[in-house]
Amino acid sequence: MKIQNRISLIFTILTAGIIASLSIFIYIFASDSISSSFFHRLEVRSDIVGHAALQDNKSRTSIYYDIKEKHLGDLPFEEHHIIWESEVEKAKKLKERLPVPPSFYDNIIRKEPARFFKNDTSYVGLNIHQSGKNIIMISSAVDLYGLEEKENLKNLLLMGFFISLVFVFTLGKLFSAQVFNPIRRIIRNVRGISAHSLHQRLVIEGSKDEIEDLSHTFNDMLNRLEITFDIQNNFVSNASHEFKTPLTIISGEAQLGLSLDEIPEIARDSFQTIFKEAERLEHLTNSMLSLAQTGFDGKKDQWEKLRVDELVITVKEAVNKIMPSNKVEINFDNLPHDEQMLTINGNETLMVAALANIVLNSCKYSDNKPVDIIITADDSNSIIEIIDRGIGIPDREIAQIYVPFFRASNTEQYKGYGIGLPLAHNIIKMHEGAIEVSSKVGQGTAFKIFLPYR
Ligand code: ADP
């Protein structure tokens, strides 16, 4: 998950926790206050009814009743139970009928507030003493208005909770996108810097924050890299020049010697060997320089649209020149109809060099047995398969074939330097492609090259 999304999520979870705790607190506090004000109202009414009863001695004619009936009206499901000191039986029956706990009665006797709430009904109990008479009042009623108020409050808090979550998440996303903008800009800038454009630097916006520090650090690193690359670049071009000139002179001199008529046979053989070895050394030097260059030089400015089938034909022509007796067959049977699926973006010279190296290996390590090249395509790649019936590569060595100068243990009779495949591998990687190999000793080797089409 991207840091930006992670931040919005953590932000939302934290805020959700805070809002939920606050809502629960508000709900508990508000319902307590609603309940206690209703208990109080019920106690006042219970007291009025109790005093009325004490005055009238069980008839309902007192001024207290008048006040209650006229001014207070009835609460929903309002009930009053009056228990006189002498009515022990009535008290017992009532105890069985009402759902209040024993502590409720204990509180009444101790003249402490007796309040109880069950199944939406509120119960209060009073112990009233007047003019030598004592009664216990137990009153109950349902606070319909309060219940509705609590329900409304609950719905409101729940709705507020979910709406604020949506807001917090959206704002969190916007906020984190804002925070990460400078980092995204740095990523874009850094992506644009390749070995070819090492002189580019990140723009410093003078924000005096960590982002500015990061940009400075990147720029310092680029300064150091540029110096190192310059040294390496110069070394490569100098070495190329220094090696090529003497080698050309050596082969030229050898050719001159060979053109003379009156030299002895033994000297001719010697010149022949010098000429052949100088050619090989030149080839080796060129390959080594190409390998070094592909390591850091994308040559993207020389890239163009290339047709994979045409590339393969050019490779075949190149192989014909180097190994005229090769038996390379190109199989066009599975060629995709859509030519888009055969068009890649790349550097022709490099691609031909890479593919030719692989095909030449197939001819070399199979002593010129037939080699098939099959061109196909999948959802996103043009695919070139090169299949030979040669000596194969031992299983435990297959992973090392792209390591420069590595040669498998079964190649003693074959000449080589272990440079061709690493070079081909680098070139294919540079083209954002991939290479797969499968091989069986004594049976042959198949290379499968995937090149993304555009
Ligand atoms: P070399 O000059 O030795 O051919 P490469 O870099 O081209 O160097 O190949 C590296 C090694 O990979 C070879 O030495 C060989 O062991 C193995 N290899 C490459 N292609 C084949 C093949 N078609 N058949 C068998 N072995 C191969």
Features:
single chain; Beta-Lactamase; Methane Monooxygenase Hydroxylase, Chain G, domain 1; Heat Shock Protein 90; 5-stranded mixed beta sheet; 4-stranded antiparallel beta sheet; 16% strand; binds adenosine-5'-diphosphate
Task: Provide an overview of this structure.
The protein is α+β, with helices and mostly antiparallel strands and 454 residues long. It folds into three domains: 3-150, 2-Layer Sandwich (Beta-Lactamase), CATH 3.30.450; 210-295, Methane Monooxygenase Hydroxylase, Chain G, domain 1, CATH 1.20.58; 301-452, Heat Shock Protein 90. It is 56% helix and 16% strand. It has helices spanning 3-56, 63-72, 88-97, 102-109, 144-191, 210-259, 265-294, 308-322, 348-364, 420-430; strands at 79-84, 114-118, 121-130, 133-142, 304-307, 328-331, 343-346, 371-377, 381-387, 434-440, 444-452. It has a five-stranded mixed sheet with strand order 6-8-9-11-10, with helices on one face. A four-stranded antiparallel sheet has the order 1-4-3-2, with helices on both faces. Strands 5-7 form a two-stranded antiparallel ribbon. Helix 1 (3-56) packs antiparallel against helix 2 and helix 6 (210-259) packs antiparallel against helix 7 (265-294). The protein is rod-shaped and about 160 Å long. The two termini are 29 Å apart. Bound molecules: adenosine-5'-diphosphate (ADP). Adenosine-5'-diphosphate binds next to helix 9 and helix 10.
